[in-house]
Design brief:
Blueprint: H1 5-25, H2 34-52, H3 70-75, H4 80-106, H5 111-123, H6 127-137, H7 140-157, H8 163-186, H9 189-218, H10 226-282
Helix pairs in contact: 1-7, 2-4, 4-9, 4-10, 5-6, 5-10, 6-7, 7-8, 7-10, 8-10, 9-10
């Protein structure tokens, strides 16, 4: 019966600890990007039909006529345009969402300074001060470090495990806490990565369809229909531009936020190593 008490005690400590981690982390973000895509699709169709397709954008107030401004020219891009606009708006919205989420994950203060301050507390073996810094900082890095420091104090009070077992437990705690935080940071980024290729491919599809219309106009008997020819060229160029813009913005966004996540991961690894090293140096 006595051998079961440490396990029960550990479980009792683990439950409130997880609640504290959630409060410290507080990573915000959109859980289901499907609704974002639907909302962007509705917005894209409305902009395409009612803004770009407004009669005032064409000669004689006739959408079937020649466009007199950029909005009318984009409207001539055909039905592929609202699809590309949906992809482009989705990239923008998810990029803003990731900015908010990763900013909240970074915490209230500068992450580099926070790591430096916690390492200084560890050097003085002031664990309580380091834990308080985590509570003040908040964010994913602070949540992982706080969880590890709680385990640090638990191992410090443990008299049954060997030093190697305690060090292994601390390393496992860092890995587990990191594994719980990282999915919240990279959420929705796979969609942005997919749009990198999808936007370019859909734009290419619109380009090909526009060129087909242009060649059909050239193939008509007698003189080619200038209206059909210009419509086909407009469709090709507009879709090319939208596809390139969507793909380029998605690439920039994905690489930017991936780099941000890598920096947070590096900070966690750095301070996690310091915690384990401090425990190894101060315990026999």
């Amino acid at each position: 019966m006595a051998s079961q008490n440490p396990t029960v005690a550990a479980e009792a400590v683990a439950t409130p600890k997880k609640k504290k981690e959630e409060k410290i982390s507080n990573v915000r973000g959109i859980r289901n990007a499907f609704f974002v895509i639907i909302a962007c699709a509705i917005a894209a169709v409305c902009i395409f039909l009612f803004a770009m397709g407004a009669p005032g954008n064409f000669e004689g107030n006739d959408p079937a006529g020649h466009p007199i401004n950029l909005a009318g020219t984009v409207y001539k891009g055909g039905f592929i345009v609202p699809i590309l606009m949906t992809l482009f708006l989705t990239v923008i919205v998810l990029s803003i969402e990731r900015w908010i989420a990763i900013s909240s994950a970074s915490g209230k203060g500068n992450t580099t300074k926070f790591v430096s301050d916690v390492k200084a507390d560890l050097a003085m073996n002031n664990i309580d001060a380091a834990m308080q810094r985590c509570k003040d900082q908040k964010g994913s890095v602070a949540a992982v470090i706080y969880s590890t420091l709680v385990k640090y104090k638990e191992m410090d009070a443990n008299t049954t495990l060997s030093k190697e077992q305690k060090l292994t437990t601390l390393r496992n705690e860092v890995e587990e806490a990191t594994a719980l935080e990282m999915p919240a940071l990279s959420q929705n980024l796979p969609i942005v990565a997919t749009l990198t290729t999808l936007g370019t491919l859909v734009g290419l599809l619109g380009t090909v369809m526009g060129m087909i219309k242009s060649f059909q106009a050239l193939a008509t008997s007698g003189s080619p229909d200038s209206t059909e020819l210009s419509t086909g060229i407009s469709e090709a160029l507009v879709n090319t531009a939208f596809g390139i813009a969507t793909g380029a913005f998605a690439v920039i966004s994905y690489n930017f936020f991936t780099n941000k996540i890598d920096n947070l991961t590096y900070a966690i690894d750095e301070i996690g190593f310091s915690i384990v090293a401090t425990f190894a140096a101060t315990h026999n």
